[in-house]
Write a structure and sequence with these properties.
The structure holds two protein chains of two kinds. Chain A is an all-alpha fold. By secondary structure, chain B is of the alpha/beta class. Chain B has one domain: P-loop containing nucleotide triphosphate hydrolases (Rossmann fold), CATH 3.40.50. Chain B is 33% helix and 26% strand. In chain B, the strands form two sheets. Chain B has a six-stranded mixed beta sheet, sandwiched between helices. A three-stranded antiparallel beta sheet of chain B has the order 2-1-4, with helices on one face. Classes of the chains: A mainly alpha, B alpha/beta. Chains A and B meet through helix 1 and helix 6 of A and helix 2 and helix 3 of B.
């Protein structure tokens, strides 16, 4: 499993596309935060973390769309499955490869807390918890995108399905959604959105229910991807 | 070594294989022949556990490939149809990856490279190799880990006559120690290499037996049974 994980990570690191997507993500993330930094006049990173899910719904599908779709298109999935690796190990290795690369890209935004430390006194423990929540959110998005990549040979279809699904999942947790549906439903439906669970991390709190939500979501989609890979007829 | 009994395979509304049965003994070289779409690739995919039979039983060394895929592929070298490779990798990097996945190792001076003649392209990216070299890389990958069973789907496809000859000699040589199932369109290849012949036509086995001894008689037999 580690061999495949290593191959997946090296694919991004040896490929210009990996660098381009990662640098574009970091540029957007850094720019969108810094452009209003001096207008806001505080040293909180809240704005950055509020904006992050919207960037991730593009970035994660972009790096994950090829993972299975390309293996299917080029028939290398048949090659991989002729090697002694279980479908679960295969999916897990690819998932962790994605999360690792996604986290490396997220690490390119560490310049922001460093910058804030130079001009003010940011709450570093809160920032650290928020980054942990961001990695969990990134992993959650990766599991869903991995599933969509496994159901098609077409990378563009995988990208569109992932982005649209993630967009609606995020939308469920916004104030906009809460105002347009009946109150008795909104509490339950918005609880399904990763955004609500991510929000608790942004307050600097590690809510065990939210950790459970993210891990359950990831396990569910890894399981669905395994089933999709097993269906080869 | 391999037992296929009453196996059928249906994809949607298309029947790829109809109730086929055959056995393969140790160190046999089976030439699997048939026109396009006859069911050769499906048969090979069933043996390595890539697809599940609709009906029937397959056993490789007593293991059911679809249920015990990992055990079966641990002792099997497989060259799939159209030789899929990770084109962005260098040859050596690719072979190291395959060897590690098989729980084995690969070194530049591995004897398998000498056999397949790829020493000169170990540092080249796979996507710039000629079709012949790509085929040799795929064959080398199948041979890594010293498998006792080799399943080769058109191993000489795209090679020039000289390269075809080299690969045939290699397969013949390997057949002294390993069991080989070889699918091909080239009838003379089977005549040269195989010890036994299985001809599939429209999903059914139409011939399973000794290879005809007389030169050119495989072609006559093939034409007669698949016309």
């Amino acid at each position: 499993m580690f061999t495949l994980f290593k191959k997946e990570v090296l694919f991004y690191l040896n490929n210009p596309i990996g660098y381009i997507v990662s640098i574009l993500f970091a540029l957007f993330a850094n720019f969108l935060f810094i452009k209003d930094l001096f207008l806001r006049g505080d040293s909180s990173m809240r704005n950055f973390f509020d904006m992050l899910p919207w960037l991730l719904i593009i970035f994660i599908p972009a790096i994950s769309m090829r993972v299975f779709a390309e293996e299917k298109r080029t028939n290398t999935l048949e090659l991989l499955l002729s090697l002694p690796i279980s479908e679960l190990s295969l999916v897990t290795a690819k998932f962790f490869g994605l999360v690792f690369f996604g986290s490396l890209s997220l690490a390119l935004t560490f310049s922001l807390p460093v910058l804030l430390s130079m001009i003010g006194k940011p709450a570093l423990s809160e920032i650290l918890v928020s980054y942990s929540g961001s990695v969990l959110l990134l992993a959650t998005f990766s599991s869903l995108s991995l599933f969509f990549s496994s159901v098609t040979k077409n990378q563009i279809i995988a990208f569109l399905f992932s982005t649209i699904t993630l967009f609606f999942l995020i939308l469920l947790g916004t104030d906009f959604f809460v105002t347009v549906i009946p109150h008795f439903m909104s509490e339950y439906i918005s609880g399904l959105s990763p955004l609500n669970h991510y929000d608790s991390f942004l307050k600097g709190l590690v809510d065990i229910r939210s950790v459970f939500y993210f891990i359950s979501f990831i396990i569910l989609f890894i399981f669905m991807t395994v089933i999709s890979v097993e269906k080869r007829d | 070594m391999i037992r296929v009994k009453g196996v059928s395979k249906v994809f949607g509304d298309k029947t790829a294989l109809k109730n086929i049965s055959f056995e393969v003994k140790d160190r046999e070289i089976i030439g699997l022949l048939g026109p396009n779409g006859a069911g050769k690739t499906t048969t090979m995919r069933l043996i390595v556990g890539y697809v599940r039979p609709t009906t029937g039983i397959i056993a490789v060394n007593g293991k059911i490939p679809i249920d015990d895929r990992i055990d079966v592929v641990r002792t099997t070298g497989y060259l799939p149809e159209n030789n899929p490779l990770y084109q962005e990798m260098k040859t050596e990097e690719y072979l190291k990856f395959i060897a590690e996945m098989k729980g084995s190792t690969f070194e530049k001076n591995d004897s398998v490279c000498t056999h397949t003649g790829i020493e000169d392209v170990l540092s080249s990216r796979i996507d710039i190799l000629s079709r012949g070299y790509k085929q040799r890389v795929g064959l080398t990958a199948a041979l890594l880990g010293n498998p006792s069973l080799l399943i080769l789907d058109e191993p000489t496809s795209g090679l020039d006559p000289i390269e075809q000859d080299k690969i045939r000699k290699l397969i013949k040589d390997l057949g002294k120690k390993k069991t080989i199932i070889l699918s091909t369109h080239i009838l003379s290849e089977v005549e040269d290499v195989a010890t036994r012949l299985i001809i599939i036509n429209k999903g059914s086995i139409v011939y399973d037996g000794e290879k005809p001894k007389r030169k050119g008689s495989v072609e006559t037999l093939f034409k007669k049974l698949t016309a």
